[in-house]
Amino acid sequence: MVPSWLYGTAWKEEATESLVYGALKTGFRGIDTANQRKHYYEEGVGRGLQRALAERLVERDDLFLQSKFTFRDGQDHRLPYDEHAPIAKQVAQSYASSLEHLGVARLDSYILHGLRTPDADKEAWQAMEKLGVPLLGVSNIDARRLGEMLEYARPTFVQNRCYANRGWDRDVRAVCRYHGIAYQAFSLLTANRDVVAAQGALAGKYGVTREAIIFRFAQQLGMIPLTGTSSPQHMRDDLAIERFTLTAEELATIEGSSAPS
């Protein structure tokens, strides 16, 4: 089952283990990571996960675990594969490394983490299809490239940074909606600080935080939001947002905020 929330694990370094454990303890059941040591510490994700499993805070079947394959130009020197191997072998090596990092036998979702060239993208995608992962996706993609990819791929997910001043990624979301692709949104807060700050009135009306308004807006528009908060209170706040519902007028107002002229 795909959860309505994902806990994102990028840029947490040595705090990764404790934050993943805390997120699972708080109630998150979807974890997003990547085998890209430059921005993620996947081994730390695995230690936090295994701690929660050992304490029976969660069961593996109740979790949604998602990782990513990242091309060489998105990595630093700490590679999870042989950079001289064919792309298909790199995908297989990276996936096996992710399973080892996380201490699990399978993933629920695997994402192509950014694009390279059309030929390289296709080779990586076809290798991903052979892994036996039930759900596949792509991240950091625009509408044109997504349309090209759909000529040979059927992604379940698109994961993008979502900017209000770009219409909340309207063009990509339109393609996703037409093809039945679920849209995962990251950087909803950090990419839209002015819009978040402007939600004081709605936050007061519903008795929630400004951040909760943006996350609920994203959910009601059909997005799966990612949060990477390190605050236990914010984790609890995030998981509580489905207790209120924004009106159609309120959604339209937020959707139009910071829209491109």
Structure commentary:
With 261 residues, the protein is an alpha/beta fold. The chain has a single domain (6-197), classed as TIM Barrel (Alpha-Beta Barrel), CATH 3.20.20. Helices cover 42% and strands 14% of the residues. The chain has helices spanning 16-26, 42-54, 87-102, 118-129, 143-149, 170-179, 193-197, 200-206, 210-220, 232-239, 248-256, and strands at residues 6-8, 30-32, 64-69, 109-113, 135-139, 157-161, 182-186, 223-227. Strands 1-2-3-4-5-6-7-8 form an 8-stranded parallel beta barrel, surrounded by 4 helices. Helix 5 (143-149) links the parallel strand 5 and strand 6 (157-161). Helix 1 (16-26) packs across helix 2. The chain is globular.
Low-pLDDT sequence parts: none
| Helical fraction | 40-55%
- Tally the helices: what do you get? 11
What is the total tally of β strands?
A: 8
- Strand line-up across the major sheet: 1-2-3-4-5-6-7-8
Q: How do the SSEs run, as a string of H and E?
A: EHEHEHEHEHEHEHHHEHH
